[in-house]
Structures are given as C-alpha cells and as structure tokens.
C-alpha cells in the first residue's frame, strides 16, 4: 500500500487523539466520512495502525522513578545480543530499549516505584549473567517535554 498525503494526515490526527470520531477526523483531513472510514480501516488492515490505548497520568496514581540506563555488553556476538534481549524483555519495568551506536550498546528506559526497585532489577540482571559488562544510570528529575506522537506530517511530507 502506497500512502498519500491524506493517509499520513489521518495517521497524524489519530496518534494525537485515538478517540476522535470519524466525522471529526474526516473534517480535519478534508474528506467525507465514508471514504475517511474506508482509509482508516485499510490503514489498520495494512498494519500502519497497530492499536489504540489510553495515556495514563501515572503521577496521579503515585510516585515513580524514571531511569535511563546505558548498558554495555561484554561481548558483541549475535548470541550475546539475543541473550540480553531475552532477559530484558521479561522486565516489565522496561518501557523502552534501544540498540544504539556510540560508546555503549543499549539505552534502556525504566519506570519503577523507586530507587530500591531499580537497584534490585539491575542487581538481578547482573547476577543472571546475561552479558552486561557495565551500566550507567541517569535518574530523571523532571520531564518538561514528553510527546506521545511523532511529527508525521513533517517527517513524511507527501
């Protein structure tokens, strides 16, 4: 499926508000409701839209700790990366995990109930011998900008 400018605009609007009505969406992308709905269904069928979810204000539930962790592996064979990923995927406090270039291998974002829980997780991972050579932790003090959507219309201007 080749996307056009309207498809990208639909995706852009849906990522900002997944609960928008089809009529409102159609108005924003300058289509009538029926063709707009057909496009949305096609975008879903083709896997461009993977699902819908609620954005939870975790701060209202209680205090949390966000930590970005740079992780370097001892070895860099494919099996070493696979072993590490198999272990890290099982840690539900891992919100993001990125293989990166530069001075370390992975940048991992943890959200925990506090520093004690984070320390326990890291001790468990190092004790499991999943290939971690060293890690550096960066505790988030404040997050003045957090966006839940990508700038699709400027990234993919069609």
Please characterize this protein's 3D structure.
- This protein has 158 residues and is of the alpha+beta class.
- The protein has a four-stranded antiparallel sheet with strand order 2-3-1-4.
- Helices cover 41% and strands 19% of the residues.
- The protein is built from seven helices and four strands; from the N terminus they run ααααβαββαβα.
- The mean pLDDT is 96.
- It has helices at residues 5-16, 22-28, 33-45, 58-61, 78-88, 115-127, 152-155, and strands at 65-73, 94-99, 106-112, 132-139.
- It is elongated, with a radius of gyration of 20 Å.
Average predicted local confidence, pLDDT: 96
How many runs of DSSP E, i.e. beta strands? 4
Rg over alpha carbons: 20 Å
Straight-line distance between termini? 14 Å
Beta-strand content: 15-25%
Largest sheet at a glance?
A: 4 strands, antiparallel
**Overall outline:** elongated
Query: Which secondary-structure class do the elements indicate?
Result: alpha+beta
Give me the number of helical elements. 7
Please bin the fraction of helical residues: 40-55%
Helices and strands, in order, run as HHHHEHEEHEH
Order of strands, main sheet, comes to: 2-3-1-4
